[in-house]
User: Fold this.
Amino acid sequence: MSAHKQNPADLLREYSVAELERIAEQYHEKHKDGFAIPVDIELIIESTPGIDLDVYPRLMANHGVMGMAGINKDGTFSIFIDDVLADNDAQQRKARMTLAEEFAHLLIHGDAIRKVNTPQDFALIHNHPKWPLYDRNAKRLAAALLMPARTLIEDGSQWYSLVLSKLPDNSRFNNPHAVQKMIIGKLADKYDVSISSMRYRLGEWPVRLLNKIEKAMCDRLTFLS
Assistant:
C-alpha cells in the first residue's frame, strides 16, 4: 500500500496584512538600486537566485490555472505562466498580476511550493479548505509588490492636487467620485495594473487613498493630508 500523499497546503499558514506589507517593503528595499514604477516583475523574478520563469503550454486549458509555481529536481523553483496569456499583449496587466501572485506564493509559501511538482499537486492546494485564505495572502502581497504603498500614496497625492487645480473654482469639490475615478485611471496606467486592482488597492490599508480624497473634498482642500 502506498503512503498517504501529503497535501502541500498543510505546510501553509495565514499572514496578517501588516506582515504582508512588511514583506513587500523589505523586498523593495532589497532591490532599491533597480526599483522603478511600473515594477518590472519579470526582471525581479529572473534576477532572484533559484527561481526560473517560463511559459507552460495550455496551462489554463488543461489545468484551469493561469500561473503555477513548483520545485525543480535540483531544488530550484520555477514559475510558469499560461502560454496564451503570456503572448496576448492585450492581457499583459493580467499576466503581470499572475506572475506577481506566483512570486508572492514563493516568498511566503516556499515550504509548501517545494512539495508541488505537477499540476496535480497544485490542485491539492486549490482543494484545501483553507486555500482561499492562503490565496488571498498571495494576492495581497502581489498587490503590495506591484503597487508599493509609499510611492502610491505619494503619486496619489500629487495627482489629487493636479486634478483639483484643473477644475473650475465653482465646481471643484462637487464630485468626489469623478475625481477618484480619474486618479484611479491615471495610477493604473502608471503602475501598469488593471483598474479594478488599483481601485481595490487604493481603498485598503495602509493606502486608503479613496477615503482621503473623499475627506479632503468634503473639507474643500486641494491637498491630501
Summary: The longest strand covers residues 51-56. The mean pLDDT is 91.
